[in-house]
Amino acid sequence: MPNAKIQEQVEALAREFAARVTRLVAQSIAEEVEVALSRHVRAGPATPGPAPTRAARAPRGAAGPRRRAGAVERWVPDRNARRVPNFVIEVTGLKTKQEIVARYGEHAVFEKGQPAPAALRSGAVND
Length: 127
Hints:
Strand content: under 5%
Shape: elongated
Structural class: mainly alpha
Number of helices: 3
Radius of gyration: 33 Å
Order of helices and strands: HEHHE
């Protein structure tokens, strides 16, 4: 049975390979732990301090929390828009995004200090 001998040889080689890899991985982990411990010991004893504040902790998610850039100068009532800025309410007299989209369209651009864009014609289909 030549197949059985080949199978036994393959299994023996696989066991030998696994044993070698296991030794190398264990050695690598031991070296990394040794380096980390030596850094920790060189740093000295940790001094207890106050718990880190929310701002000092690492941000959640890949991008982290959004920061406010300042006052809103430009607003478009598209799907991403949240609240209607005060300057848009003052220019249009409308308080909800739905009312603004119905009158001006979803892609109208409102800029602070500028007049309101042209309103949609009545009966116009908005895409």
